Amino acid sequence: MSRHDFSPLIAYKGSPELLQNALLDDAFVMMEHGKMSLPEALKIGLSFLTMYKASSSFDLVSKRLESEHLHKISVISRLDAIIKTNVGRR
Hints:
Blueprint: H1 7-11, H2 16-34, H3 38-42, H4 46-54, H5 56-89
């Protein structure tokens, strides 16, 4: 992590709550994308986050995560339909 990682925070003029939310959003993105814990994600430098979000890897992982999410939703929907069908037969 370089010294300039936190320079945007010094110049930040918005409300502290908005800054906290933005930083936590970035940490949760790294938790999901990097399969890491919250303490690990909080240790990542802001310059790395900026670089990662601008990379093609970010888009690739985002699409993979979205695909996994859609797959889980479809499995749950199918199971729900099977359960409703079985309940209706009783």
